[in-house]
Amino acid sequence: MNPENYYEVIAADLDRFATVPDEVLWEIVTLDGRCLWLVPADETPEWDEEELTDRELAARLCAECPARRACLELELRVAGADSVGVWGGLSDEDRRALYPVWRARRGRMGGPSS
Ligand code: SF4
Description:
Layout: H1 3-13, H2 22-32, H3 54-62, H4 68-78, H5 92-109
Helix pairs in contact: 1-5, 2-4
This protein binds iron/sulfur cluster.
């Protein structure tokens, strides 16, 4: 899959959230987000000592997260192209590349694009 198709496939998968209010997305992420319950607040993750790229961290942290797509949708709405860090299973570099593709799809759907 070339990079353009990669981002188009992810953006298409997010279409199902187009009409979901922000508050509902927040609730999904805070209730089910793996990073919010995987490691207790007073402990450090076992991979804390490892040198991981953001893509590696995203793959490790978010891969099994049941809220991954909701998290990604929310981050695209809230932070847009200014997104920083690992959210929704993607590095900020990947989300910045995804953002215009996602926004263009929302524009074509006639819904809010940010
Ligand atoms: S997708 Fe990743 S960053 Fe988002 S809630 Fe899940 S584990 Fe946390």
